Amino acid sequence: MTMTGFLYNLFADPDIIRLPTPLSPLQKIIALIISKRRAPKSIAAYQSIGGGSPILQYSNEQAELIKQSLSNRYGLDVNTYIGMRYWYPFTEEALQEIQNDGINALVIVPLYPQFSISTSGSSLRVLQEEFARNSDQWGGKASKKPFTHTVVPSWYDRPGYIKSMANIIQKELDSFTPDDINQQLETNPVGKHILFSAHGVPQSYIEAGDPYQSQIKECVQKISEQLPSLEEGVQVHLSYQSRVGPIEWLRPYTDDVLPQLGKDGVQNLVVVPISFVSEHIETLEEIDIEYRELAEESGISNWRRAQALNTDETFINDMADMVVEALSQPSQSVTEACVANNVGLVDLDDSTELSSAGVGGVGYNDDLTSRGVRIKADERFYGRMAIVAVVVSVMIEVLSGKSVTNLFGF
What pLDDT, on the 0 to 100 scale, is given for residue 363? Predict the structure, then answer.
């Protein structure tokens, strides 16, 4: 992986850095400056976990196991494809494979349990742009071959997902010994603690309608209901990690919560990466190295970390079940999913037909263009004033030669 290239693609995404319209031409310049500044730090982080992220390996294994589950349990012969947002294999490459294989029915599943504009929304926006731009290839009115698709925008409340997460956490809770618990009770009235650490997003996203925080809270609640209660000696906490820049992100921050837990006498702690289904840099480096060191410095002596789902059998089978359900229910197009979740879209030309008939032949017809829906690029205001500050800082750096961007964590 070329680290600067990956970071450039990340920060050039308008769903990651949303500039006011007059400043949008500067998006690529700002992305280039930030990526060059941040690359050495990111390279060091990847070197600390062996030189690279295992996320693509796990994603490919998940796709293959879901394919096997669909075959073994449902008798379905399907192809699976992996498309990454910021590095190879890009979403566009996956779509080309789908075209080459002559696929005419597609279930789109973002590998993010909870929906956010900056994650699932960004990926769906890329798909919507491709489907709108090349509607003749993707089932539009001018298309010469049938093609239909459906999206599962989020699946944080799936029973199999909830169960598999609870099972993994319970395994870590069971690893605490009676001596661990007795020692804990000398400093804190609760014997075991769980910290769900979710990936953060800017607070302004939530204020503008992003459902991410509410889905995280509901997800944590559902998982907690399958675990021992406070009365049974387990206390649950929630925090947010991976914030970047000078703007306000979702609170409380994980690096604030850990020292506070230490002050409260917590020693037995299970940290759960609730937003991630695969091990990668934010679990293996940020949590396992940075946060663990902070926790131990704060007096949290019995640290545990619940592994990501990876290839957990319960999780894989539930994903397969979800695909089957999506095939038999009324479908949701990428455009409908984007509209429902406030994702900015490109214009649709008059020849683009977006049908939400069920992929498996069951469903209803709902041609958006026949209803006169014209979707304009959304001028969202997420973090605009904060981004202006970034732009000004970058310009100061260019003019003065001083690294102002370091102030923002880049």
Answer: 27
287: CB partners within 8 A, 6+ apart: 197, 241, 271, 273, 305
Q: At what angle are helices 27-47 and 3-11 packed, to 10 degrees?
A: 130
Peptide bond just before 153 cis, omega within 30 deg: no
49 is written with which tokens? 């976990």
Q: Is 192 helix (H, G, I), strand (E, B) or coil?
A: strand
Distance CA 3, CA 139 (A): 36
Whole-angstrom distance, CA of residue 401 vs CA of residue 395? 10
CATH code assigned at 194: 3.40.50.1400
Residue 398 domain boundaries: 3-47+381-408
Residue 359 within any structural domain of the chain: no
Neighbouring residues of 408: CB distance < 8 A, sequence distance ≥ 6? 244, 245, 246, 390, 393
Q: Give the residue carrying structure tokens 């929906």.
A: 115
Bridge partner list, 249? 202
Whether residue 65 lies inside any domain: the answer is no
pLDDT band at 16 (very low <50, low <70, confident <90, very high): low
pTM of the model: 0.78
Distance separating alpha carbons of residues 329 and 306, to the nearest angstrom: 34
* 8 Å CB contact between 173 and 217: no
Give dist(CA 404, CA 397) in Å, integer.
6
Q: Are residues 296 and 166 in the same domain?
A: yes
